[in-house]
Amino acid sequence: MAFDSLFRTGAIGDLTLRNRVVKSPNTTATCNPDGTVSERTVSHYRRLGEGGTGLVMVEYTYVDDDASKSIHGQPGASRQDHVPGLGLLADEVRSTGAAVGLQLVHAGRQRFLGTSPMKSASTSSWEVAEMPFGVVPTPLTVDEIAGVVRSFGEAAQRAYMARFDLVEVHAGHGYMITNFLSPHTNDRTDEYGGSFENRARILLEIVDSVRDRVPRSFPLSVRLSVTDYEPDGIVLEETVELCRLLEQHGVDVIHASGGHHALQQWEVSSWYMPRQPHRWGWETIKDAVSIPVIASGSLITPEIADEILTSSSADFVSLGRAMLADPDWANKAREGRQLEIVPCIRCNDGCLERGLDQKRSTGCTVNPEVTEEGRFPIGTAPVPKRVAVAGGGPAGLRAAAILHDRGHTVVLFEPGELGGALNHALGSTVKQDLAGLREHLVHEVTRRGIEVRQVAADAAVTGGFDEVVVATGAPQRTFTGPVAEAALVLSPADITARREDLAGRRVVVVGGGFQGCESALRLAELSGTSVVVLEAGEGLLRGDEVKYDALVLPSRLDETGVEVRTGAEVVAVEAKGVRVRRADGTEEAVEADAVLLALGREPSSGTLAAEVEKAGVPVTAIGSATAPGRVYDALHTAFFAARLI
């Protein structure tokens, strides 16, 4: 596919872009403590420009030294000392042929530094930002609002001095401006609260302040949430009217997203959420204004992004996490190499759970090099070897490709279908992004011509190799109670192959952890299937699941009609269901046509690695063959192990 719509030139005000692809401003947390950019910051954004993007938007940048800084490692534009580094960053990105923009922000109540002051529209609180530190928001005074308005204008002037091509005001996602726009967070009774006109006042004053300090030819973007998805929050009708006013005040483009941090499933939607969730909003905005609209939010693939432009749903497409996953997204799409794009799986594990939430820089499950660009090259091995890879799941597939690129002769052993644990996403709308990852990893092995043998590896067949990589995963945890011979007992891996058999039947899922909940969702999408989840504990998802999944999974189960029973320990699997012991010691029978055991995984026995090592062949275990883990663990251990062999 040519994706012609993606790679037409486009204009924002007087700025011409080489294509319609925008890199959304994701936080990287790579800057110095004083807000100046670091070498890592510059390298990251230069790499994005090299990937063929039309416009690279640099992450949210604080505008004053009072309360606008939101997070560790954030860039600043609050004083002249920030300009030289920002200028270097802008020059480096522009040297790649991409345009570069700078996003400006005031944290508002979403200040995660744990220090005072935290200033917002009102005292409306969000416990995640406040409770750990005992810091609560105080309402900005009218004089302080005037200072913030002035700071935005001065910061925009600094962006212009640093020779950025565009500046963007962040008026979405729950930061300070949104705190004023949303009735959910604005209970003021002065000229900045109450009516829509009053709540919109601060943003229009900020836009006017920017326009007063930069030439009219310098494009101005506003990023906003079409709605914050709060029941008493921002409504689309107000957002549309706001966009009309922004156009009148000199804004050149609307960057449309959605949600806020307290409802992160809409802001950084997970793999359980639909793609392009805000389309209904940006299309309504586009019909109401004459300036261009940038579509944003889980666009992920070139096919989705191109269709948005082809159908005139929006004028530009903005991708954030997708380009953390693969900075060459645009180049590969333009060259028709879409299967080579390393796909974002929207797991929120590397970027958030193990990245920013741990006070680290942004990471990525599928791209171990993000924010560490150039530090882990895949060079040619000094001595080419014959390497056996045992296991064709995500860890084995990624390791095989890297080993091949290092010049080794690789043979991949997999008795079943390539893809391993990723295969459960095939044919399902649940976590469809994993199916894309599976397709990519298999393609990368296939296009390299790596030999695949459909047999299980053992010490005998790997004896002729110089090294062995064990990527056989972790076994399913077994049920220790009695199981009737006549019972139809399944594992999560059986759902894909037995979809037709299970349609229209009643299925009990034993286990309310990550594995059980998502298995229930897959079963629930089968026509006429009735699903009951039984969990021995007092609540679902009580293990080490990613919290972003826990935000979504329970509500998704409820939406799809899955019945959930907690405090229900399954003590036996019977011919037509299971026997459950309640917390009070009483037992009851739960009828079912099939029983799916989703008890998680247990550590690998390590037998294969021990046998190979005993035979005198060097061996490396990766992925869940070392310990049960997530996709992040599979791909990261594969990457770092393979580049050392």
Task: Describe it.
The protein is α/β, with parallel strands linked by helices and 645 residues long. Helix content is 31%, strand content 17%. Strand 1 and strand 2 form a beta hairpin.
Structural class: alpha/beta
Helix content: 25-40%
The dominant shape is globular
What is the count of DSSP helices, taking H or I runs of 4+ residues?
A: 21
User: How many β-strand runs?
Assistant: 25
The main β sheet shows up as:
8 strands, parallel, barrel
- Report the C-alpha radius of gyration, rounded: 26 Å
Average predicted confidence as pLDDT: 95
What distance lies between the first and last C-alpha atoms, to the nearest angstrom?
37 Å
Strand order of the largest sheet: 3-4-5-8-9-10-11-12
Strand residues, percent = 15-25%
Residue stretches low in confidence (pLDDT < 50, at least 5 long) are none
Characteristic terms for this protein:
645 residues; 8-stranded parallel β-barrel; 21 helices; 31% helix
Please give the structural blueprint.
Layout: E1 10-12, E2 15-17, E3 21-23, H1 39-50, E4 55-62, H2 83-94, E5 99-105, E6 119-120, H3 127-130, E7 138-139, H4 142-161, E8 166-171, H5 176-181, H6 196-213, E9 220-225, H7 236-248, E10 253-257, H8 264-267, H9 279-288, E11 293-296, H10 302-310, E12 316-319, H11 321-325, H12 329-334, H13 349-353, E13 386-390, H14 394-405, E14 409-413, H15 432-447, E15 451-453, E16 467-470, E17 489-490, H16 499-502, E18 506-510, H17 514-524, E19 530-535, H18 547-550, H19 553-559, E20 563-566, E21 568-574, E22 577-582, E23 587-591, E24 594-597, H20 607-614, E25 619-621, H21 631-642
Parallel strand pairs: 3-4, 3-12, 4-5, 5-8, 6-7, 8-9, 9-10, 10-11, 11-12, 13-14, 13-16, 14-15, 16-25, 17-24, 18-19, 18-24, 19-20
Antiparallel strand pairs: 1-2, 21-22, 22-23
